[in-house]
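Quick log. Single chain, no ligands specified.
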Amino acid sequence: MTDNQNIDTKNAAAARQAFLFDLDGTLIDSVYQHVLAWREALEAGGIHLAVWRIHRQIGMSGGLFVNGLAREMGRTVSAEEAERIHDVHGEAFKRYASQVRALPGARELLAYLTKAGVPWAIATSGRRESARLSLHLLGVDDDVPMITRDMVRHAKPDPDLFLTAAEKLGVPIEDSVVIGDSIWDLLTARRARALGVWLLSGGHR
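-> predicted structure:
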């Protein structure tokens, strides 16, 4: 290989850009199903809140989510209580999952990126079990590059999810575009040093 070919190869690698997608509210229309599932779970744990309070925290790491809402009620939640709330949420969301749909254009976008050879991954604060329920809506296989809450030490608004997703794709985080529907996605993108694109599809303003 000549020196010029080496330079061209390096330039091509440097120009490679990845897209890192949030899942709920970004690719699939599931925010309100999650809100209702969380309301059930929180009420089972003795935390009674209006749904708008729950909605504004959607997209944050589940642990921070539960503790933050508990603080609004002037109480604390133990690790065991938080885990039980998570479990109830997971079971409740399964009942709502049949109502979830892919957002318009999401399937086509992922199919286009795949065909064009553009690297992409999903990075979600949800657990893998609940995230997998929605993958078939996007027309992708279970082995799609996907980083979930149970695969990293810290979730949104910490940058671990997107950093891990970029690493999995072999693309520098600085060359990645984070696409999400909540303020937590944009905050996480900034902390990860990636470009953030905010969609309004999750109902956040």
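The beta strands are 18-21, 28-29, 101-102, 120-123, 146-147, 176-180, 195-198.
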